[in-house]
Design goal:
Layout: H1 26-57, H2 62-70, H3 73-84, H4 87-108, H5 113-129, H6 133-150, H7 162-212, E1 215-219, E2 225-229, H8 240-243, H9 247-251, H10 257-270, E3 274-286, E4 293-306, E5 324-330, H11 332-381, H12 390-422, E6 430-432, H13 434-451, E7 455-459, E8 467-469, H14 471-487, E9 494-502, E10 505-512, H15 519-522, H16 546-556, E11 560-566, E12 570-578, E13 594-598, H17 608-618
Parallel strand pairs: 7-9, 11-13
Antiparallel strand pairs: 1-2, 1-5, 3-4, 4-5, 6-8, 9-10, 10-12, 11-12
Helix pairs in contact: 1-3, 1-7, 2-4, 3-4, 4-5, 4-6, 5-6, 5-7, 11-12, 12-16, 13-14, 14-16
Length: 623
């Protein structure tokens, strides 16, 4: 039973002639096998042809023995390859063997020019397969020299008949033609093997990059992309033209480009793995206003290293150096999580500090009236300490009552803030005259203003349209704003209250010429328990909840707050409320946003025209 011969995988016995250094490299191992196979075939043909030659022509001459010895050079090249594992050295031995045999055949015999040309052609074909350009030029030069030196020379040789000459040509040409056929087939098979190996490697690498989800790029020294491996970039909606060349560099965030170029340079110079985090644009998104688009950046962990050369890579030169392999792994989720954790930690620390200050402030606010209540109550309860004068007794009783009211006010403020934060605070809108309510509130704080030497000014018309809102909540808003303005205004200062209609809104402005608020504290106004420049030995009492309650109540009415201030220039707080707060959408917002504006110029309470001008400028900035 015959056995089919396959050129895809030569017989297993040829593996014994393959050097052990290439057995683990499929492509190199295939090249060695396909080099050995045709030379063994032609060597076998030459050895089998020797008895036929002897039978036809008898004992060979010295020149024929030399030519026969040179014909063993392919077999010698197989031995060189099996011994050293150097394919190019074996190819050189084989090529020069064919070249030497062609020269000897042309110079020592007559009538075999066709065979000499065939041998030169074989040498040229083998040189083309090396591929060594220098080798091709050497063979060409040798051929020209051979023709020039032997032109017209007729060396003595055997005079053979036509039959004998035809037989000798057949004997010499048959192995050569067979060798050429085997050489072509093996070259094709070797190239097919190379293609299969390259395809398998490319497929495995593509599957690997797709499985791990990384983008793999080849970069030159300037950071330009020369090759993209895999299709992972398509997950981000990126096409090949978006990354190839300078496209990737243009997508790196402008602040990260110096780090990117330095990483590429270090990878080339130090030949060691390098890593950094880059922001890369992966798309566009409409802005909040919808008038333009904004770039979307993802965070990528970029790891770079210089590609390692392979033994058969002929394209690596000084002009075409090894590329840098860049592996991009998307770490946006991890980065966002880190930022969220950092923000939560900072917020937790701020909340802890605020609550600590709140506890200190509340303790101070509660301790003072409680001391008064306990002290004067003990005096009134003790017959020895109680004053005999009824007026003095009434004074002590009034102090106890006032301290109790102050405690109740502090507790109510804390409860109101708790209701607002939990969303359980409700409003009950009703129509009322806002100027009349402001008059009541001004009358309530007038005594405190007089005691502090503060001039309380009312600048509004009495015949305004009624406001539909929660009257109790509006009263609490006005009292908090007026109390703060009077408390933080030194003697001789002014507090001015202004009402200005603005379309379907009413704007109430409380402006003072007090101590003002630093720009660094403006952004935190309205935060629960926050007090500007708060300290345990502060000159002004309070829990830091007044403006937080105002913010929550204004938000329940669907209003907005604007605060403008500067240290030593005073503060202006403008509250804008809808004329009708019974809209279905109102009452759902827990807290109003505060727009804080650092003050530039003179004090707000200095002149009413300045207040009006401020109202005109800031109304456009309120949402």
């Amino acid at each position: 039973m015959s056995k089919t011969v396959s050129f895809d995988r030569p017989a297993i016995w040829i593996d014994h002639l393959v050097h052990e250094s290439v057995l683990k490299r499929p492509l190199e191992s295939a090249r060695h096998r396909f080099f050995v196979l045709p030379r063994l075939v032609v060597a076998a043909c030459i050895l089998l042809g020797a008895p036929v030659w002897l039978f036809l022509y008898g004992a060979p001459s010295a020149s024929e023995l030399m030519i026969y010895a040179l014909a063993q050079m392919p077999l010698i090249s197989v031995g060189v390859l099996a011994r050293t594992g150097q394919l190019r050295l074996a190819q050189s031995v084989s090529i020069f063997g064919w070249l030497a045999m062609a020269v000897a055949l042309h110079g020592l015999t007559q009538g075999y020019e066709t065979i000499s040309i065939t041998l030169l052609t074989i040498a040229l074909v083998e040189a083309a397969l090396t591929p060594e350009i220098v080798m091709i030029f050497v063979i060409e030069a040798a051929t020209i020299d051979l023709i020039a030196l032997t032109a017209g020379v007729h060396m003595p040789g055997q005079h053979l008949s036509a039959f004998e000459r035809s037989a000798s040509l057949a004997i010499l040409a048959a192995p050569l033609l067979l060798y050429i056929a085997f050489l072509s087939v093996c070259a094709i098979r070797a190239e097919n093997t190379r293609t299969k190996v390259d395809s398998a490697n490319a497929r495995d690498l593509r599957l690997l990059t797709d499985a791990i989800g990384d983008i793999v790029l080849h970069l030159d020294r300037g950071g330009a992309v020369g090759m993209i491996i895999g299709d992972t970039h398509k997950v981000y909606g990126l096409d090949r033209r978006d990354l190839i060349g300078r496209g990737f560099f243009q997508r790196v965030h402008i602040a990260d480009r110096p780090a990117f170029l330095k990483l590429v340079s270090d990878a080339f110079d130090q030949d060691a793995p390098m890593t950094t985090v880059l922001r890369v644009q992966v798309g566009l998104a409409p802005s909040a206003s919808g008038k333009y688009v904004e770039p979307i950046f993802n965070y990528f962990d970029a790891r770079m290293c210089l590609a390692q050369p392979v033994a058969d890579d002929l394209n690596l030169t000084n002009e075409n150096p090894r590329p840098v392999v860049c592996i991009l792994r998307d770490v946006t989720a991890e980065k966002r999580a880190e930022e969220a954790i950092a923000a939560a930690r900072a917020e937790s620390e701020r909340a802890t500090m605020s609550k600590t200050r709140f506890l200190a402030n509340v303790s101070h606010e509660l301790r003072t009236p409680l001391n008064a209540i306990i002290g004067f109550s003990e005096m009134l309860a003790n017959a020895e300490l109680a004053p005999s004068d009824p007026a003095k007794q009434r004074e002590y009783a009034q102090i106890v009552a006032n301290s109790g009211h102050h405690l109740l006010e502090v507790v109510n403020t804390i409860l109101d803030m708790s209701k607002i934060e939990s969303g359980s605070m409700q409003i009950f809108p009703e129509p009322f005259s806002l100027p009349s309510l402001i008059d009541q509130c001004c009358d309530m704080v007038q005594l405190k203003a007089d005691q502090g030497g503060v001039n309380l000014l009312r600048d509004y018309r009495r015949d305004m349209e009624e406001l539909v809102a929660d009257k109790r909540a509006c009263k609490q808003i006005l009292l908090n704003l007026l109390s703060n303005a009077v408390k933080f205004t030194p003697a001789g200062g002014k507090v001015r209250v202004v009402i200005a209609p603005e379309g379907n809104l009413l704007a109430v402005t409380v402006a003072d010429t007090g101590i003002g608020i630093a720009a660094s504290d403006l952004s935190r106004l309205g935060d629960p328990f926050f007090q500007a420049s708060a300290s345990h030995d502060r000159a002004y009492e309070g829990t830091g909840l007044g403006l937080s309650v105002v913010r929550g109540l204004v938000g329940l009415h669907g209003g907005a707050i604007t605060v403008e201030s500067m240290p030593k220039k005073g503060t202006s707080v403008t509250v804008r409320l809808p004329l009708d707060c019974r809209e279905p959408t109102l009452g759902t917002c827990v807290s109003a946003q505060i727009e804080a504006i650092p003050r530039i110029g003179a004090a707000i309470g200095a002149d009413i025209s300045q207040v009006n001008e401020i109202a005109k400028k800031t109304v456009k900035k309120i949402a």
